[in-house]
Amino acid sequence: MATVIIPAFNEEESVGAVVATARASPLIDDVLVVDGDSEDQTVEAAEAAGADTRVVTGGGKGEAMAAGVAATDDDVIVFLDADLHGLRPDHIDRLVRSVATGGAAMACGLFDRGRWMNPWFVHVGPVLTGERALRRELFESLAAEDAVGYRIEAALNARAADLGLPVAIFVCDGMWHRTKEEKADTPREGLRAKVAMLWTAWASSARFALRRLVRRLRAFRSANRPHASGSPPSERTNYPA
């Protein structure tokens, strides 16, 4: 029914467990790990757990995701990060079913941040998660310049909004990940990498939101511009002063 694509870079400690969990889902046909030319044993760990693998060089997360989509022909694609822990097959099943039979064009699974923070991330904050299922045509509709690096997740959100597509968002209870501070040689290096990632993702979200606002303003002005011939247009939306 669906293919899981896992972009990975230097994730030998956790990628095998993510692959095994994905393969345990009855809704998953194939699991593909797209490795960004790791310096450790990520590829070997993924293959030992039963995944197919591809290695890409010179790109980031978005490029790895695009390479994975190009390597499969399933209509429903599931993306998972390689550094997860607490992921369960039922999390994956819910992502897939939300798209395959639930009417959503994209489903996003969020980390479990606890009872007080979860509502904010579901209802308020930008949805910057690597755990998502979506229709192939949504991914393939992205502009090439948007499917790059950590911009990719904000680009998918913006594209779904531009097209007016329904998106399901929910918390995957008990799911978390290895942080960049844990993975780096020093906490300072990890924090620097996290800030760079979050800056790219948040700035991209803001840029896409601004672009959408500009389009709406232009459409508003065009709809309310006086007709060139002096006669009223056949249809018009009136807005209160």
List keywords for this structure.
241 residues; alpha/beta; Spore Coat Polysaccharide Biosynthesis Protein SpsA, Chain A; 7-stranded mixed sheet; two-stranded antiparallel ribbon; 42% helix; globular; disordered C terminus
What does this protein look like?
The termini are far apart. The protein is of the alpha/beta class. The strands form two sheets. A seven-stranded mixed beta sheet has the order 3-2-1-4-7-6-8, with helices on both faces. Helix 7 packs parallel to helix 9. 42% of the residues lie in helices and 17% in strands. It has a single domain, classed as Spore Coat Polysaccharide Biosynthesis Protein SpsA, Chain A.
Series of H and E elements:
EHEHEHEEHEHEHHEEHH
Largest sheet: 7 strands, mixed
Shape: globular
Estimated helix fraction: 40-55%
Domain module count: 1
Number of strands: 9
**Measured distance between first and last alpha carbons:** 51 Å
Task: Give the structural class.
Answer: alpha/beta
Percent in strands: 15-25%
CATH C-level class is Alpha Beta
Return residue spans where pLDDT drops below 50 for at least 5 consecutive residues.
231-241
CATH architecture call: Alpha-Beta Complex
Mean of residue pLDDT values: 85
Query: What would the CATH topology be?
Result: Spore Coat Polysaccharide Biosynthesis Protein SpsA, Chain A
Please state the CA-atom Rg, rounded to the nearest Å. Answer: 20 Å
- Please give the order of strands in the largest beta sheet: 3-2-1-4-7-6-8
